[in-house]
Specification:
- The structure holds two protein chains of two kinds.
- Helix content of chain A is 28%, strand content 22%.
- Chain A is of the alpha/beta class.
- In chain A, the strands form four sheets. In chain A, strands 1, 2, 3, 4, 5, 16, 17, 18 and 19 form a nine-stranded mixed β-sheet that branches. Chain A has a five-stranded parallel β-sheet with strand order 9-10-13-14-15.
- Chain B is α/β, with parallel strands linked by helices.
- Chain B folds into two domains: 18-144 and 307-320, Rossmann fold, CATH 3.40.50.1370; 146-305, Aspartate/ornithine carbamoyltransferase (Rossmann fold, 3-Layer(aba) Sandwich), CATH 3.40.50.
- In chain B, strand 1 (54-59), helix 2 (64-76) and strand 2 (80-85) form a beta-alpha-beta unit.
- Classes of the chains: A alpha/beta, B alpha/beta.
- The A-B interface holds A 188, 191-202, 204, 268-270, 310, 313-318 and B 89-91, 96-98, 116-121, 123-124, 127, 140-144, 186, 189, 212-218.
Chain lengths: 428, 332
């Protein structure tokens, strides 16, 4: 494999140095490294991060290839600076067997843009009734560690308890989509001042918080690991903070959109802002940022949810829920966390690479940028600022809430085990 | 809605929300409706104003009352009327709102009157670029029903101020109480906004389960006690309460609802002497209103229906008619 010398990059935002990649690993770091026969990437002024890891991606294949495929989704991931994504289980068929997770995992490997780590369903068909063969999925080639019925809540307390207990055998984690189903029947947006005016069915914060409260207690009771998907309310932050203060094994993620957008945007009735959990209030946004900064929330996860145009080009109630996010995640995090002084670039590396990799028990990702480590790396130009242009997305879908919005930062290069998947902002 | 100086509606050229109406807009509509009402007293009830214009009634929900009211209004203005009934959600029909809109646009609709079960559908129609014509919201989900609020305000102004004395005036200082399923009511939302704009003091009364979270930001008072509010109400507007709500635990039984929030003769007797009882229809006699009240002189339900045609004439005229006078009065 060819050698690559990254010249003058600020590793994790620190002092400029050179990083030599050779044979899929970081071969040398330091100032003034000899390029020799290596290809040189001039990276002065840019920030070098460990390849980003997404714990929450919807790749839609198999079943909804009209909205995304493993190929288009991993291309989008690479452009967004990701070297590993966790593919959610709500496909058709559902990823609830070893066969489906192995297929998705293999597709990722074959395409080679980004490692795809399948998430296994907790229950058969995501129906919340019978445990899926979690052990078989773990033992498969995909080595599944994260299990989730995402899109649906494992609302039955007994099933949740059993799932938490069962995955202890192979150090798995249950990633809960916290949504009390009865409290959210017909829910269309955050329940509050705006929903009252717009006459849209409310999705109350308590529907998320009550499930989180139950599940951290369950995880503590059975001594297992629970991960909270797309945490979205100030109250949820308080619960996770409390659970962590007890020393319980609880982790949580926040999406980029919940760090930036509020339910005021729903006044447009534009379904591009329709997402689950819904956009919340400004107070929630500020609480989420603070929690990500202080580590109460462990990581950023995109909840990249592609939908075809027709599923958003309609009235609000008929529209699908979700937003694409892989290609804008780092920019939104820079805007909301770095530009505001809440996180430095080392903090970004921690919340978008180290910690999500650790939660997912990925061994080859989320590693320090140091000699001998796998060369999964992302180079970002933090000085860039420009409008989001969805026509340039690699994702098959365009349902971004950021169209035309000016955001900072641009991924210039992504390296997957030493091979460039993105060069100068374009797919290699 | 209208292009009057000083107004800054979100949807100029359309009528989507009562919130988009300035006080001047609203008074102009009421005054115009008063002129239209005089036409209804003539032997020939028709004006040539919208001759050659096409008004489409696009109804995704059954509502014969509202549809025929708009139809009568458009026909009295000599517009061509197309009724497009697309019952059920657009999705279950397989055709999207967008494709329906594009079809109407191709047919040259000058105005689209839309009733839709999804809150915000008229706003989408007006702002999506799918059509050029004026959009009139004839009720969207649990959001708004602005022409109902206008006809209610019109009825109130006639009753409480007077048809002639009211011209040019609002409802300043009048106390209006809205009772019932505020949570699910587009009529309540539009009325609260419009009545506030016109200077009235609005109180909503409902069991707490039927008051939305977030109501504290609305321009109204909230009470759970009907009997305390009645003696100071110039008008009481009874909302239709669907019996099925009790299955979702909004209230225990019909009887309990009627006892606590229904209007019967005994309660009506505790209202001020010249106060009125309103109902947007259709009424659930025996539920939110007793027959005794519904059939009393104080109840304006039938007047409201007649006034609805005048208000809808005024709205269509003001949106489509341009600057020509609506009514030419023959000189002696």
């Amino acid at each position: 494999m060819s050698k690559i010398l990254i010249r003058g990059a600020r590793v994790l935002g620190g002092e400029p140095q050179d990083v030599l990649i050779d044979g899929g690993t970081v071969a040398a770091t330091g100032a003034g490294l000899d390029a020799g026969d290596a290809a040189v990437v001039a990276a002065e002024g840019q920030v070098l991060l460990p390849g980003l890891v997404d714990l929450h991606t919807h790749l839609r294949e198999p079943g909804r290839e009209d909205s995304e495929t493993v190929l288009t989704g991993t291309r989008a991931a690479a452009l967004g600076g990701f070297t590993a994504v966790h593919a959610m289980a709500n496909t058709f068929p559902v990823a609830d067997t070893a066969g489906v997770v192995e297929q998705v995992w293999r597709l990722g490997r074959e395409h080679g843009y980004c490692d795809v780590q399948p998430v296994g369903a907790v229950t058969v068909g995501l129906e919340g009734k019978h445990l899926a063969e979690l052990g078989a999925m773990h033992d498969s080639a995909a080595q599944v560690r994260v299990f989730s019925d995402d899109g649906k809540c494992v609302d039955d307390a007994v099933i949740m308890r059993r799932a938490l207990e069962y995955v202890k055998a192979f150090d798995g984690v249950i990633a809960q989509h916290a949504q009390e189903p009865r409290l959210t029947e017909g829910a269309q947006m955050n329940e509050g001042v705006v929903s009252a005016e717009l006459g849209l069915g409310g999705w109350p914060a308590v529907a998320e918080e009550s499930i989180i409260a139950r599940d951290v207690l369950l995880a503590a009771h059975v001594g297992s690991r629970v991960h909270i998907c797309h945490l979205s309310t100030a109250g949820s932050v308080e619960l996770v903070r409390w659970a962590k203060s007890k020393g319980w094994n609880v982790t949580a993620e926040v999406t980029p959109h919940h760090l930036l957008l509020t339910d005021e945007l729903v006044r447009s009735y534009d379904p591009v802002y329709k997402v689950n959990p819904p956009l919340r209030t400004e107070a929630d946004v500020q609480a989420l940022r603070a929690a990500l900064a202080d580590g109460t929330i462990d990581c950023v996860a995109t909840d990249h949810a592609p939908h075809p145009h027709e599923d958003k080009d309609c009235e609000w109630a008929a529209a699908a829920m979700g937003m694409v996010g892989l290609e804008t995640a780092l920019s939104v995090v820079q805007e909301t966390m770095v530009e505001t002084g809440l996180l430095d670039w080392a903090g970004v590396a921690d919340r978008m690479s180290f910690r999500p990799a650790r939660i997912g028990r990925l061994t080859g990702h989320g590693r320090p940028v140091s000699v001998g480590e796998p060369a999964n790396l992302t180079l970002v130009d933090p000085a860039y600022r420009g409008p989001v242009d969805p026509t340039g997305f690699a994702s098959r879908s365009r349902n971004t809430p950021y169209q035309g919005r000016e955001l900072p930062g641009r991924v210039t290069h992504t390296f997957l085990r030493g091979r460039a998947t993105v060069v100068d902002g374009n797919l290699a | 809605m209208l292009r009057l100086p000083g107004a800054s509606p979100r949807t100029p050229g359309h009528l989507i929300s009562a919130a988009d109406l300035s006080r001047d807009d609203a008074v102009l509509i009421l005054d115009t409706a008063e002129e239209m009402a005089r036409v209804a007293d003539r032997p020939i009830k028709k004006l040539p104003t919208l001759r050659g214009r096409t008004v489409v009634n696009l109804f995704f929900e059954d509502s014969t009352r509202t549809r025929i009211s708009f139809e009568a209004a458009a026909k009295r203005l000599s517009a061509d009327v197309i009724n497009f009934s697309a019952k059920g959600s657009s999705v279950s029909k397989g055709e999207s709102l967008k494709d329906t809109a594009l079809t109407l646009e191709a047919m040259g609709a000058d105005a689209v009157v839309i009733r839709h079960p999804a809150s915000g559908a008229p706003y989408r129609l007006a702002t999506s670029g799918w059509i050029d014509g004026a959009v009139v919201n004839a009720g969207d989900g649990t959001h708004e029903h602005p022409t109902q609020a206008l006809l209610d305000a019109f009825t109130l102004r006639r009753r409480l101020v007077g048809a002639d004395q009211g011209t040019g005036r609002g409802l300043d200082g009048r106390r209006v109480t809205i009772v019932g399923d505020v949570l699910h009511s587009r009529v309540a939302r539009s009325n609260i906004l419009l009545l506030h704009t016109l200077g009235a003091r609005v109180t909503v009364v409902a069991p707490p389960t039927l008051v939305p979270i977030g109501v504290e930001r609305w321009p109204c008072e909230v009470s759970y006690d009907l009997d305390r509010v009645l003696p100071t109400s110039d008008a009481v507007m009874m909302l239709r309460v669907q019996r099925e709500r009790m299955n979702a635990a909004f209230f225990p039984t019909e009887r309990e609802y009627s006892r606590r929030y229904g209007l019967d003769g005994d309660r009506m007797s505790r209202m001020p002497g010249d106060s009125v009882v309103m109902h947007p229809g259709p009424m659930n006699r025996g539920m939110e209103i007793t027959a005794e009240v519904a059939d009393s002189d104080r109840c304006t339900a039938v007047e409201q229906v007649a006034n609805g045609v005048s208000i809808r004439m005024a709205v269509l005229y003001l949106l489509l008619g341009g600057n020509e006078p609506a009514v030419t009065h023959s000189r002696p």
